[in-house]
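Take one record.
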Amino acid sequence: MPMREKAATEKPLVTFTYYAANLAKSTSNGSLAHSGTSTDAVNGAVMPWSGSVVGIAVSLNANKTAGTLSFSPTINGVVTTMQASVANSASVARATAPVGRHRFAAGARLGCVYNSNGSMAPDGSLDVAVEVYVQFDGVKV
């Protein structure tokens, strides 16, 4: 098997989707629901193999106009230092990290949270979809 194919099959890059509607100002570690669920009570997606969180991409339904709004992946409920902050007059944000910086073990729960300050606008009408990118270690099936 050529080296490129081996790397792609043994260390796959996969995305997990999270969403929320009507983001509120003055929120600290507000949970986003995992795609396919109707509630954040599911506590995220369970990882079948060990690996690393390597990226996050944020898409809002409208531009943020004021204040701060950021999104971070969580591993077993612990917020990582990876943060995608949405700029004013923007509706997208992203952040990346090298493989190994945000590691998780097989069976870990991957989630996503948001933080906003009291001047974040518009308040209560922004919807978001977030893709969290992971690279799994040495997958062999």
About this structure: The radius of gyration is 16 Å. Helices lie at 3-10.
